[in-house]
Amino acid sequence: MPKSLEVARNPLAHIARRWTPSPVTVQRACAAALAMAVVIVVTGGAVRLTSSGLGCPTWPKCTDESLTTTSDMGLHGVIEFTNRMLTYVLCAAVGWAIIAVRSQKPWRRSLTRLGWAQFWVVMGNAVLGGITVLTGLNPYVVAGHFLLSSALITVAVVTWQRAREGDGPVRPLVGRPVQQLAWVLTACCALLIAVGTVVTGAGPHAGDSAEVHRIPIDWKTVAQLHADLAWVVVALTLALWFVLRAVDAPAGPKARTRDLFLVLLAQGAIGYVQYFTHLPEVLVGLHMLGSALIWIGVLRVALSMRERPAEQPGIPGPAQSGSALASTV
After folding, report:
1. What is the secondary structure of 80-106 as a DSSP string?
2. How far is residue 244's CA from residue 165's CA, in Å, rounded to a whole number?
3. Distant-in-sequence, close-in-space partners of 260: CB < 8 Å, separation ≥ 6
4. How many CB atoms lie under 10 A from the CB of residue 176?
């Protein structure tokens, strides 16, 4: 087979044969993909909060005649189109992470699969974002768009964590009851985020200045449920921290739990202030950023309850066995 054809068929393998990134480079590439996943959530919130959701009224082009925004579309068109362009930056960050993990020596199949999982989630969310525009900002589709962004953050956090670990067997750092408490905390936080999307879908910030369909429920009632769930998450976090201290857990889990508690306090303060000040756009945007940071913090707490050292020589691990994606966590 001609060399050029071989390169075209498998460019990643071609790069991997000629480049070996350092572990730090791989970790930074994975961290960059995670950072861009958070940025795209914040900029997507900015689109909604500035009523620019239909700044580009169609998809995949901005208008029926133009691929890009036009001067007569004003600031709303610029904001919406800029957010669309940031998807390409996100794709570049995820692509860089895929190239880095694929080129690492020895090759870690499980880590490469996590990188590709990020790519496919980005592609799926890009399509869902287009459906959001085509359905006129249907609140249920908007909620799904945000939840899929949270799924991207989830995979990005796991990839970043795994890039700093080995492929040896998982070793718990705490007892099973403590691990179960951490997973209960994670489940409650996922429910908190899901209810938050309902608040968004029923609340006053519809995403566009035109008439937009809203979820037909009292948003203040759902906001109260959201606040109650937030207090449950805070209580579970505080309980987990005390339990970790009581069982003399390693420093890592205790530090991650403490960090999460501090982020939760800041997010709670923002949440109550924005509620009593009638949801100013700036505070709602900060609340969306806080939501992403809390989810990252919860995932880091759950992942800190175990470790994966480097493989022992002669013992095959996930990179050689081709284990499924679920086993990489």
Report:
1. HHHHHHHHHHHHHHHHHHHHHHHHSSS
2. 22
3. 237, 294, 297, 298, 300, 301
4. 9
Query: What does DSSP assign to residue 52?
Result: B
| 282, two tokens | 């700036």
Which of the pair, 155 or 279, is modelled with greater confidence? 155
Q: What is the pTM of this model?
A: 0.87
Listed residue (143, 156, 233) closest to 192, CA to CA: 233
Residues with Cβ within 8 Å of residue 71, at least 6 apart in sequence: none
Instruction: Give the H or E element holding residue 150.
Output: helix 139-163
Using a 10 angstrom Cβ sphere, with 0-12 exposed, 13-18 middle and 19 or more buried, the burial of residue 76 is: buried
Pick from 174, 74, 84: nearest CA to 122: 84
Alpha-helical runs (H) found in 164-248: 176-202, 219-246
pLDDT at 213: 72
- Both tokens of residue 260? 């999460």
Q: Tell me the pLDDT band of 204, cut-offs 50, 70 and 90.
A: low
For residues 229 and 259, give the distance between their C-alpha atoms in angstroms, rounded to a whole number: 19
Look-up: residue for tokens 């070793």? 171
Is the pLDDT at 91 greater than 90? The verdict is yes
Run of H or E including 125: helix 109-134
Please say if the pLDDT value at position 290 is more than 70: yes
Q: pLDDT tens across 24-56, in order?
A: 999 999 999 999 999 999 998 888 888 888 888
> What is the C-alpha to C-alpha distance for residues 312 and 329, in angstroms, rounded to an integer?
19
User: Which pair of structure tokens corresponds to residue 195?
Assistant: 């209810």
